[in-house]
Amino acid sequence: MSDTSITTEIRPFKAADYFALLKPRVMSLVVFTAAIGLLVAPSGMAPLNAIATIFLIAIGGGASGALNMWWDADIDILMRRTANRPVPAGRVSAKAARNYGFVLSLASVGLLGLVANWAAAGMLAFTIFFYVVIYTMWLKRSTPWNIVIGGASGAFPPMIGWIAATGGISFEAIAMFGLVFMWTPPHFWALSLFMNGDYARAKVPMLTVTHGRPATRKQILIYTLLLAPISLGIAFSSIGGLLYLALALWLNFAFVKGAIQIYRRPEPEAEADRYATERKFFKLSLLYLFGLFSGLLIEASLRHFDLTILGFSL
């Protein structure tokens, strides 16, 4: 990481810039999946502890984002999608972003250990390490399979939520991890198809840059097909059910159909139609993950309702 290409003129402190360092869009996904992991777990938490747990997981995720922006400032400035981030735009210094990320990392891990348990805190610490060191500092700039391996960092939050509630790992936690892990490559490869110019300028070895768009489309289809049985299999676990199964069948049909359309799609010729299919699939991938985790939450709510009614009748 080098700061030589980044402006040294730092503007006055603005809270919005430090909030932007947390990557709020990514943080929202972390919060959502971690909250579902906690809420579907068989062991409940006191409401205030649960809220504090989700908040601290969010802060840990945000800390990862700040450290990512510190390290990646030299390539962020080269990409249109990231050039206006606080560090490359000169609104926050790289050093300030680094210190901010370190402080939030230590605070979130330490407080999570006190609020929930140290197993969850340890998993949060490992997640931050994996995203910052394994993915950001190593994989992202060294291999086209960066998203495949690095995607594990985004798949840990539901496990952290589950561990916070139960104190341990079970098949269900691993299944939720597997769901997000296998979803990540087609999601980000779809993004890279229509943002390929950015990655090429920054010399980031995304699959679209190193192997080309046709190979990337093929991999999107492969990973989508591998993802389907994992998401459907969750329906037959203790956190699944018939409603989730119906939702998963519908979402997988739409997702696989979209992946096939991308695979069969030739390179776009008309500028007006450039990558419309890929953008549509990228948006569908967000709906896919949101829908499946929402289904798990609904199933947990129905089970809780049934148990409440049963307890009342007894």
Main attributes of the structure:
314 residues, mainly alpha, 2 domains, Tetracycline Repressor, domain 2
Can you characterise this structure?
This protein is mainly alpha-helical and 314 residues long. It folds into two domains: 15-168, Tetracycline Repressor, domain 2, CATH 1.10.357.140; 170-314. The protein is 75% helix and 0% strand. It contains 15 helices and no strands. It has helices spanning 15-20, 24-39, 47-71, 73-76, 94-115, 118-142, 146-150, 152-155, 157-166, 171-194, 196-202, 207-210, 213-233, 242-264, 276-313. Helix 2 (24-39) runs parallel beside helix 15 (276-313) and helix 5 runs antiparallel to helix 6. It is flat, with a radius of gyration of 20 Å. The termini are far apart. The mean pLDDT is 91.
Q: Please bin the fraction of helical residues.
A: over 70%
Outline type: flat
Assess the beta-strand content as a share of residues.
under 5%
State the separation between the terminal residues, measured CA to CA.
64 Å
Rg: 20 Å
**Domain module tally:** 2
Order of helices and strands: HHHHHHHHHHHHHHH
| Uncertain parts | none
**pLDDT average, as an integer?**
91
Provide a brief overview of the structure.
The chain has 15 helices and no strands. The protein is mostly helical. The relative contact order is 0.10.
Itemize the secondary structure elements and their pairings.
Blueprint: H1 15-20, H2 24-39, H3 47-71, H4 73-76, H5 94-115, H6 118-142, H7 146-150, H8 152-155, H9 157-166, H10 171-194, H11 196-202, H12 207-210, H13 213-233, H14 242-264, H15 276-313
Helix pairs in contact: 2-3, 2-9, 2-15, 3-5, 3-6, 3-9, 5-6, 6-9, 9-10, 10-13, 10-15, 13-14, 14-15
